[in-house]
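Field log, afternoon session.

UNIT: design team B
ACTIVITY: writing a sequence onto a fixed backbone
BACKBONE:
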């Protein structure tokens, strides 16, 4: 009995050892590679260039004051529609002491000159009537009096403008009133009532009180890399995507491309603009939206195509691998030369060499 038991034990040990060697042998054998299987299909392939930028109004102006002072009143709100000539705001004048002193001194000087000219004219008028002086001397005195009156009026007007922003001589011109310079919608009022504002001058751009734009006519204002700009031409169609709504479908047309690039972060970029031709959005486009514009530079419609991963490049030629075995687990492929066409980076056109009923090799799975 014991002898039989030992035989059984040794037999089990031998079987276990043989099974272990068999499994190790099976595991050490090379596993035939397995590939993803792809089928050609008809697709429309677009080749495009991408530009980044913003949505901006085509027409936009920055309304600035004509005099330095305090923003005492704002008569419009953001989003309000205005017309050219409408009052936007009012500015209270804060006189500059140097300018005020100079104007005050000029007015006093002109007053003294006027007083002197008036006395000389009165004397010469009496002498002329008595026949003592000639008409020429009398007319010279009269002319000097007219000049003195004009200088006095000018000095008084200059002082009034410094103090009040307007004068009797200026009539309807009032530099304290800020008016709209175009019809449109107020899209920005950067300052609040009470802020200090500076007028436009040769040395300063001045303070922007309001920004007015025609929001019914928007454009894409962007930039594109120098490696892509040569593929573009005026009139190229565009598909514009805004960051706020990626599903929004906006189409446009390239209108202009800058002739000179600007280097930014080591890359030369060219400015461009594209019109917004149609928009299926339920809300209006807002100025300043971040956006991308895809310009369609080439297109192949309803062509046989395959994923680019199925294409093999060898010695300057292109090939695909066709599945020839019926057993898809034990895959065998035949190399076939093909002629390729347009590519969008994912799919590539196959002009010759394949048909839609073929099964082709894709990425390796193991």
């Amino acid at each position: 009995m014991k002898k039989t038991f030992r035989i059984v034990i040794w037999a089990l040990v031998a079987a276990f050892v043989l099974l272990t060697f068999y499994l190790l042998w099976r595991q050490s054998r090379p596993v035939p590679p397995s590939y993803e299987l792809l089928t050609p299909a008809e697709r429309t392939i677009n080749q495009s260039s991408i530009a980044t930028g913003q949505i901006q109004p085509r027409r936009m102006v920055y309304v600035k004051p004509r005099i330095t002072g305090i923003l005492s009143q704002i008569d419009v709100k953001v989003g309000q529609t205005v017309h050219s000539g409408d009052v936007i705001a009012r500015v209270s004048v804060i006189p500059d002491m140097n300018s005020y002193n100079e104007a005050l001194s000029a007015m006093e000087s002109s007053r003294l000159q006027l007083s002197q000219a008036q006395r000389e004219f009165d004397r010469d008028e009496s002498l002329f009537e008595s026949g003592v002086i000639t008409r020429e001397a009398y007319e010279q005195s009269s002319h000097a009096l007219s000049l003195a009156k004009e200088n006095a009026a000018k000095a008084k007007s200059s002082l009034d403008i410094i103090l009040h922003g307007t004068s009797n001589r200026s009539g309807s011109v009032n530099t304290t009133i800020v008016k709209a310079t175009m019809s449109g919608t107020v899209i920005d009022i950067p300052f609040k009532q009470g802020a200090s504002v500076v007028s436009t001058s040769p040395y300063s751009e001045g303070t922007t009180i309001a920004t007015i734009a025609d929001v019914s006519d928007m454009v894409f204002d962007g930039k594109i890399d120098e490696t892509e700009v040569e593929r573009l031409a005026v009139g190229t169609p565009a598909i514009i995507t805004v960051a706020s709504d990626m599903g929004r479908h906006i189409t446009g047309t390239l209108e202009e491309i800058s002739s000179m690039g600007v280097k930014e972060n080591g890359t030369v970029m060219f400015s461009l603009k594209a019109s917004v031709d149609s928009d299926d959005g339920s809300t209006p486009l807002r100025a300043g939206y971040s956006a991308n514009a895809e310009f369609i530079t080439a297109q192949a419609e309803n062509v046989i195509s395959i994923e680019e991963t199925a294409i093999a490049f060898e010695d300057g030629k292109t090939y695909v691998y066709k599945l020839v075995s019926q057993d898809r687990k034990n895959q065998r492929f035949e190399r076939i030369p093909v002629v390729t066409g347009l590519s969008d980076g994912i799919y590539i056109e196959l002009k010759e060499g394949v048909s839609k009923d073929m099964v082709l090799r894709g990425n390796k799975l193991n």
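LOG NOTE: Helices lie at 2-28, 97-129, 135-164, 226-229.
NEXT ACTIVITY: expression trials, pending approval
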